[in-house]
Amino acid sequence: MTKPLRRDAEINRQRILKAAQEVFAARGVDVMLDDIAHHAGLGVGTVYRRFPTREDLVEALFDTRLEEIVGWAEDGLRHADPWTGLTEFVERATAAMAADRGLRDIAFSRAYGRRRVAEIREMLAPRVEALVTRCQEAGVVRADAAGVDLVLTQFMVAALLEYAEPIAPGLWRRYLTLLLDGLRFGTTPLPVPPPEVENMDRIAENWRPPRRPSAD
């Protein structure tokens, strides 16, 4: 059984988590623990005692955020209208990523996160596939679409978020709508098939957000 932290230690832990959430949201997860310590107003040693590596912080912060996205996919599957269920899921997930660079990094890159984060990612994939399949069965999504197409659509919107959101907040909504309309039934046949499922991890391994300047 894990021994409870002393009150002062728990206060410091919560300060670290709050600081990490703010720094990750603003700058992404590709930061140093020193940056977290500085933002929290704590010594670096205090941060390292609670979270020896950045990955420990990522696990502590993002498992619940990713579980929330899984829950949104399940909400979409329960929606009476399949197309609305799919689009509302994508819009909710993208809005969350627009507000949090760290969540964007975690959702798309396999370079961050350990066992728990990886498990939740695996939970999300079949639900996204089911959202697409349900729409196809209802005749509202093209037959040659796949769940991975939805993921890669969000990859494309994530690139727009990275570069346009600070200048034109919310612009992503326009282009997400255009991309989602491309999934609709009765459009031009696609020239190439979707990527194999096993290749998605390889694609995600190549996702690297651009180097972001220090907040100092």
Automatic annotation (TrEMBL):
Per the record, the domain of life is Bacteria
Q: State if Cytoplasm is listed as a keyword.
A: no
Q: Which PROSITE patterns match?
A: HTH_TETR_2
Chain ranges of the HTH tetR-type domain: 10-69
Which ranges of the sequence are annotated as binding DNA?
Answer: 32-51
> Which UniProt keywords are listed?
DNA-binding, Transcription, Transcription regulation
* GO molecular function terms attached to this record: DNA-binding transcription factor activity; transcription cis-regulatory region binding
On whether Transit peptide is a keyword of this UniProt record, the answer is: no
**What name is this protein filed under?**
TetR family transcriptional regulator
For this protein's source organism, the top of the classification is:
Bacteria, Bacillati, Actinomycetota, Actinomycetes, Micromonosporales
